[in-house]
Amino acid sequence: MTEKINEALINHCAPVLTGLKPAAIFTLDCPNCVDYLQQKLPKEFCLETLCLTNCNKILTMLYSPALFEKIVLGRQAQFILSALGYPAKINSVFMQHLKTAG
Prior knowledge:
Strand content: 15-25%
Order of helices and strands: HEHEEHHH
Distance between the termini: 31 Å
Strand order of the largest sheet: 1-3-2
Largest sheet: 3 strands, antiparallel
Structural class: alpha+beta
Number of strands: 3
Number of helices: 5
C-alpha cells in the first residue's frame, strides 16, 4: 500500500506539495490509501475524494487551499466559473459542485 501512495505522491502530488500547482487530481486503489495519505500530509494541504471510477479507483484531489483560492478567485477565473454555476467562495458548496459537475 505505501509503495502505491509514494508513487502517487511522486508522480502527481509533488508539484502541489512544492507550491508549483494549486491542485492535482489522481486515482488511488483503496480507501485505506486515502486515509493513510490524509494522515501523512502536512496540515496546509487538503485531500478530497471526488468519486469512485468505473474501474473501482478513487478519484482524489490534493490541493493547497491558499493557492487554490488565490487562483480560483482571480477575476478571469471567477468570470468563467460563475458562468458554470460555481459559488464565489472555496467552501463545502464549491467542493460539492466540483464533485457533481460534468
